[in-house]
Design brief:
Chain lengths: 239, 239
């Protein structure tokens, strides 16, 4: 697909921009020191927390459950995990509320700030993420991510890979699909974006899930761009 | 109302942040020089163009017309005015399309960049505007407005002062109304925001409409903040 017409880049955030596993694990370790919690594998905790995300969204996608913001899904899963790992009595309501906000305070992969700064010079750049508006805006502000706009599932009341998210973004931007490029570290996100006519860029994030990573090491289709970092994407697009 | 709880500032843009009259007039003068157009009062042109905005929105608000993006309303009005002022044959389709994008390239009042930089340190800052997403994002990028997010009527498929816009913003932010402050140069915008429980800040923009300005010289209610510039607002909020 010709990339000449692309005006807007839409970015998946969890995994593509944000290193959620490292960020959550570091925050867990810090909390454990402050509260003298029992020894816990916080990297495994981060992965377990994240693992609750897809089943939680699936209930919404199937219609089994009405629209439920991601922050609610995260909180429900947090309560389950704290019981599973024996920390239920150690952490009260205030601490759980604070922990749930960790998803609003994720650190980006190190290539994101320099890469996005270059991409922003030529393109409008925004999120297209299953995160909440306030979580994405807060994360962007804290990390200095220079988004021109934030698109969140909150706006579309649907989660990726539902068509409503991609079609909603195309409608809000009032552009042709081919003028928009979806950037993601997950093949299925790009498959959905392409099915609605968007251009596609795959960023390899082989460390996203650590020992749990079983897929998305490589492109599974001939995406318009295949790259290893945000700076690599900036180079591929000539910015 | 206590301002201690405010976390997010929502800004009206046309008039409050952007000097649409001066911006459009300057662009008209430049175009006239380039194209050797007949002598035209471009300040009056800007005001006439803007004057088509409220009747255009009113048709949507009354239900007489289905949802129509502001860029379409602007374009319809442009065609009418060019006929009215005798420039219909002088400007073709390409030029009209480019002129319509002037609304995406407005200059902010000079106090906005320094004021918003200070306010952004403490608050999440975003637009709540009748502009289009791509227009607001483009304007912000071009001028360097440091928005954390963009809320546009496009998202709510309704124009201010419809309740759907304010209630939609409160819902998307997932905050209590009292945690949100509406900032505007127009009393009726603040009346609507307050009716939904938001805090309110009035910025005096006595030069917005030039000779056409007949209202909004002063606050018409006891808004939580009454100020003369964005820097003044930053000072009032202690940032």
């Amino acid at each position: 697909m010709s990339l000449e017409r692309v005006k807007v880049l839409l970015f998946d955030t969890f995994g593509t921009v944000a290193d959620w596993r490292g960020s959550i694990a570091r925050k867990g370790e810090k909390l454990a020191r402050e509260k003298s919690l029992p020894e816990t594998n916080w990297d495994a905790f981060a992965r377990a927390w994240r693992a609750g995300y897809k089943p939680g969204m699936a209930q919404v996608q199937s219609g089994e459950r009405s629209w439920t913001p991601i922050d609610v899904i995260h909180r429900e899963r947090l309560d389950e995990i704290l019981t599973d790992i024996g920390l239920d009595s150690a952490l009260g309501e205030d601490e759980r509320q604070a922990m749930n906000l960790w998803w609003h305070q994720l650190d980006p992969w190190p290539d994101c700030l320099p890469g996005l700064a270059r991409l922003k010079q030529r393109y409008l750049i925004g999120t297209l993420s299953n995160g909440s508006i306030i979580g994405l805006a807060g994360m962007g502000k804290r990390a200095g991510l220079p988004w021109d706009f934030i698109f969140s599932s909150d706006v579309f009341k649907a989660y990726k890979r539902d068509a409503a998210v991609y079609l909603g973004a195309i409608d809000l931007l009032n552009l042709e699909p081919a003028e928009i490029m979806m950037v993601a570290a997950h093949n299925d996100d790009l498959t959905a974006a392409r099915s609605h006519g968007m251009c596609t860029a795959f960023i390899r994030r082989p460390y996203e899930y650590g020992p749990d990573q079983t897929s998305d090491f490589e492109p599974e289709e001939d995406w318009d761009v295949d790259c290893h970092s945000m700076e690599d994407l900036a180079k591929a697009l000539g910015t």
